[in-house]
User: Which sequence fits this backbone?
């Protein structure tokens, strides 16, 4: 098995079409302990890629490897087993608004087979301390900022002790202080817990700080796959346009802008 599927996550010639082609002969991989960022303009297949990794979507053709297994033809029962190893932090946080922050994390803990109810409070408090939001323990997610909800979602994710976390735009629409907090948290999880991760982002600062490799999607195709520094030497005009436009937008926004957004971010109306 290890020889056949040496990469923790791998896309092998993946195609997916809805009204139009979304993924076209997509090929890339993520090794254990690596962080790979997926970037590109809106609508190029970034979120669809995450959906395939989680098994929410199935490819029209090609193979999807997750946790060193070919999951392409897995049913829900088999995918649920894989999802105990691979979890996702949604952009919205996807928290239970009727539960407090502590109760949200406890819900995740209770899904673990090795959960010991005697230590529940200590574990919940430890998770909140790890992500730096212990002060929000008894509050409800709807009363908290976007950045806090993302941090809670990360705490809930790591409470399940996964091998891999998928992040969907973790620093979009948060203030610079919380963006820095989330970035440092992601680095800590990578370095201390050795978690494998995939990050969909428009934030090039985040990319350069956390990513070992980057996948640049253009019209559904992998236009670039390699170390982040290679983006800047790529001769692909779409990649160069993306980088130049990002510079222009950041220049117009200024350092004191309350939102961190790269190109393609379109959630200004959302909290």
Assistant:
């Amino acid at each position: 098995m290890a020889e056949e599927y040496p990469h923790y996550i791998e896309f092998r010639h993946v195609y997916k079409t809805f009204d139009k082609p979304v993924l076209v002969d997509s090929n890339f991989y993520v090794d254990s302990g690596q962080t790979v960022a997926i970037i590109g303009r809106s609508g190029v297949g970034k979120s669809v890629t995450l959906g395939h990794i989680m098994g929410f979507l199935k490819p029209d053709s090609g193979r999807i490897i997750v946790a060193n297994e070919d999951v392409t033809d897995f049913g829900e029962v088999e995918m649920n087993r894989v999802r105990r190893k691979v979890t996702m932090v949604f952009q919205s946080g996807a928290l239970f608004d009727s539960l407090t922050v502590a109760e949200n994390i406890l819900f995740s803990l209770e899904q673990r087979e090795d959960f010991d109810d005697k230590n529940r409070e200590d574990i919940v408090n430890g998770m909140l301390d790890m992500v730096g939001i212990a002060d929000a323990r008894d509050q409800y997610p709807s009363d908290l900022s976007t950045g806090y909800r993302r941090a809670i979602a990360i705490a809930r994710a790591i409470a399940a002790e996964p091998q891999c976390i998928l992040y969907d735009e973790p620093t979009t629409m948060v203030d610079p202080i919380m963006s820095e907090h989330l970035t440092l948290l992601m680095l800590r999880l990578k370095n201390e817990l050795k978690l494998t991760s995939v990050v969909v982002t428009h934030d090039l600062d985040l990319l350069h700080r956390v990513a070992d490799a980057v996948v640049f999607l253009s019209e559904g195709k992998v236009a670039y796959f390699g170390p982040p520094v290679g983006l800047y030497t790529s001769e692909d005009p779409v990649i160069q346009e993306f980088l130049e436009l990002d510079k222009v937008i950041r220049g117009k926004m200024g350092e004191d802008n309350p939102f961190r957004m790269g190109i393609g971010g379109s959630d200004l109306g959302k909290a």
In short: Residues 98-161 form one domain. The helical segments are 46-54, 76-83, 101-109, 120-131, 146-159, 176-193, 204-210, 237-253. The CA atoms of residues 51 and 57 lie 5 Å apart.
